[in-house]
Amino acid sequence: MDHAATREEALARIAAAQDLGALEGLRVEFLGKQGSISGLLKTLGAMSPDERQVAGPQIHALREAVTEALGARKAALESAALEAQLASETIDLSLPAPEAPRGTIHPVSQVMDELAEIFADMGFAVATGPEIEDDWHNFTALNIPESHPARAMHDTFYFPDKDGQGRDMLLRTHTSPVQIRAMLQQGAPIRIIAPGRVYRSDSDATHTPMFHQVEGLVIDKGITLGHLKWTLETFLKAYFEREDIVLRLRPSYFPFTEPSVEVDVGFALVSGPDGKSRRVLGGSGDDPGHGWMELLGSGMVNRKVIAAGGLDPDEWQGFAFGVGVDRLAMLKYGMDDLRAFFDGDVRWLAHYGFSPLDVPTLSAGVGARA
Ligand code: PHE
Question: What is the pLDDT of residue 281?
């Protein structure tokens, strides 16, 4: 029996297979369990030894030839597919790079990073506390008892339900509760700043219901107002990158500090090209053409607050301050409407935002813009 015809036909069909799927179909047709060539192999068993001696090598040769042809065609089809893919995926390297979407760092984040960098240099760590607070941490422990008018002054957002200890829950109205949490958690001495979001029911061009503060707290032995003044001066000179920053300390009142000090910063009135005058920080507010601008609240930590923090006020003293981060950003980078900070307008963000690579460092200048 001659298999030449079978062989010719098989090889021709294999050569004509247009894709890997068709080729696999042929493999099954010829060499699969029920395949035609597998069928021929099975006939060997029923043959006489003489017949088998003739037919055996022929059938095996047929199988060999078909197997080889299948392999060769498969390799050819695969390399053709690869060629086609490579051809379709070419890119023109002479074209300009496509516009890559690029985010910016919000000025509030940038200023918080600048503050962390400046205060780290003075040995301050960054602390945080919850935005959802209880009225003990936000008020009572800060010497603002229930009937105190300061509670009403804070325009607090309350939650309908109390916490497990029967305390009223609220959105913190300032970062000062972090003072209490820091004292209770780490004991003394303490040097921290606590940046974060605070909430008050208030809204106009300079007030938004959510804004940002940074709290500063130092607790140690023998701390005086002098330390407070030096710290604020050093911080503000580094932040505004000017040596001529002049501060004025005025007596004030906060329940959690005693004495309390309102800090003003001197500015010059400079008329711009549009004829409008702008305030530029620097110089004494008492000089001609200058004025004072209220900047932050501070004072020596009240003995009652130190006691609420679990420390002995005869042993430990300290100072604290609180300042609006958004306001610091506006003064340094020249925005005039606080509400725009939180509108999420990409044009505003593209204009006032910072490059993600522009990480504030003291050596490069904390306010460097890429
Ligand atoms: N917590 C005060 C406020 O929000 C600011 C402040 C902080 C004042 C620390 C004194 C000391 O107005």
Answer: 92
Prediction pTM value: 0.72
Name the strands in the sheet holding 132-134, side by side, starting at the edge strand that comes first in the sequence: 132-134, 168-171, 158-162
Query: Does ligand 1 lie within 6 Å of residue 143's CB atom?
Result: no
What integer pLDDT is reported at residue 4 of this predicted model?
Answer: 84
According to the CATH classification, is domain 107-352 in 3.10.20.440? Answer: no
Residue with CA nearest ligand 1 atom 7: 322
- Ligand 1 neighbourhood includes 299 CB (under 6 angstroms): yes
What local confidence, expressed as pLDDT, does residue 356 receive?
A: 84
Sequence letter at residue 219 = I
Decide: 196 and 153 in contact? Cβ < 8 Å.
no
86: tokens are 């490579």
The reported pLDDT for the residue numbered 370 is 39
Q: Among 322, 111, 318, 319, which residue's Cα sits nearest to residue 198?
A: 322
Reported in sequence order, the residue ranges of the chain that DSSP labels E, i.e. its strands, are 125-126, 132-134, 158-162, 168-171, 190-199, 210-220, 247-254, 257-271, 277-281, 290-301, 317-324
> What are the sequence ranges of the domains in the chain?
3-88, 107-352
Instruction: Report the pLDDT averaged over residues 171-178.
Output: 97
